[in-house]
Design a protein that fits this description.
Length: 425
């Protein structure tokens, strides 16, 4: 029997009325080592809370050992140290999440994440050290912070070592730009090869001197990934004014390298959950991103691992509210998300019944979901009035994801009070 995409939606949609319904996805995940949990925006409460519930189930039922998020490594280390008991500070989850001070702060400094961090802390408190769940940032915007972390650690652990001198030389290249990526990016048009070589040499040296560093409270992993951030962030900022596809690819390739470093740290039985936007975790080969020369985390991991080792779950909504900003770097607002554009994936699912649903794509039904259709993506910068011209990525939903969770009407997440007021528009 053949189905149109509309008929397939009606035939294969499963009800999502309670957390118990998520067990269908947990069962379908099977023995996967990497589970990618997406989001259609960085500011929707339900995307965070449902990912948290899925993550709890994966940790408790399938022995997952780490969470990797689309955030900076140094900031996420504050969370990791807190939930693993490495820090003697009496701070609570709200205080710890203030480490995510770089715009857009609301992505991780929000009430939904704070609740999940509290759960991770309580869960870890009952476990022996080797079984505690980790929390890591795999993004690469923290070039200066990562360099400072490297120098601080090397100064304390091996002040006479060659790696410290390499780190100081590398940092001296970036110091004049005072932590301003845009200034560095502009300068690279006239930049020498020296800094490029120095950050590469630093990473190579740290990797080759692995045995010199005592892995106390994951200090070796911290050193390695901060060095990786330094090398790849330099490359990213150098490319960002030249080629959008190239800079995008550098960033997603970095995130895969960081995921691999974390998995190597946990050993051959490592199982990791990744929280990122749909545009990162859904296979780029099933979108028009491929035509623009872009790849992503989902594609790279599917290419690197066996098919059954990687499982991607996409998210979407028909309408609601979201936290975002009208321009890069300006204060965030609670913005109305209009009903999905006609003939889009979200519109099609909504019209099959205005309720929450989930889909599990498998060998029996996946081919029914491979027709091309627009699929909404909302970033940290969002202008609803431009939706008719953009925000929809042509996709083959069944090839892009292994499962999909649809929340018909969503609400904005709740940012922590960091001295910034949410504006309603």
């Amino acid at each position: 029997m053949k189905f149109t995409l509309e008929e397939a939606v009606k035939n294969y949609a499963l009800p999502f009325q309670s957390d118990a319904d998520l067990s269908t996805i947990i069962e379908a995940i099977g023995d996967a080592k990497i589970v990618l949990l997406g989001e259609a925006s960085h500011g929707t409460s339900e995307f965070y809370t449902v990912r948290a519930k899925l993550s709890k189930m994966l940790i408790e039922q399938k022995g997952f050992s780490a969470i990797a998020v689309e955030g900076d490594w140094p900031s996420a280390q504050h969370v990791n140290r807190y939930i693993k008991g490495y820090s003697e500070s009496k701070d609570d989850a709200h205080e710890v999440l203030k480490a995510f001070g770089r715009w857009p702060t609301w992505m991780w400094a929000n009430e939904e994440v704070a609740e999940f961090v509290d759960w991770l802390k309580m869960h870890n408190d009952k476990r022996i050290p080797d079984q505690k769940i980790g929390f890591y940032g795999i993004d690469m915007y923290s070039l200066w912070e990562s360099m400072e972390e490297i120098i601080r650690y090397l100064t304390e652990s091996n002040p006479a070592g060659a790696d410290l001198e390499l780190a100081k030389k590398a940092f001296s290249c970036f110091e004049p730009f005072n932590g301003m990526p845009d200034h560095y990016a502009i300068s690279t048009a006239h930049f020498s090869q020296v800094c490029i070589d120095e950050v590469s040499d630093l990473l190579s040296s740290i990797r080759s001197h692995n045995k010199h560093y005592k892995d106390d409270q994951e200090t070796t992993l911290n050193l390695k990934v901060n060095a990786l951030v330094t090398k790849n962030a330099e490359k990213y900022y150098r490319a960002m004014l030249q080629d959008n596809a190239l800079s995008w690819n550098i960033r997603d390739e970095h995130m895969v390298e960081a995921i691999n470093e974390v998995m190597n740290h946990y050993g051959e039985n490592a199982k990791i959950i990744v929280w990122e936007h749909n545009t990162h975790i859904g296979d780029a080969r099933a979108t028009t991103m491929q035509e623009d020369g872009m790849l992503n985390v989902g594609q790279l991991l599917r290419e690197q691992f066996m098919k059954e080792d990687v499982y991607a779950v996409g998210f979407g909504t028909h309408r609601g509210t979201v936290i975002a900003a009208e321009q890069w770097g300006v204060p965030f607002e609670k913005i109305e998300v209009p009903p999905a554009r006609q003939h889009s994936w979200e519109d099609l699912v909504h019209k099959s019944g205005a309720c929450n649903k989930l889909f599990v794509f498998n060998e029996d039904n996946r081919h029914y979901f491979t027709g091309w259709i627009g699929h909404r993506a909302i970033g940290v910068v969002y202008n609803p009035e431009y939706e008719k011209f953009g925000n929809y990525v042509p996709s083959q939903i069944g090839n892009r994801y292994d499962a999909f969770i649809f929340i018909d009407q969503t609400k904005a997440l709740e940012p922590l009070n960091l001295g910034v007021t949410v504006t309603d528009i």
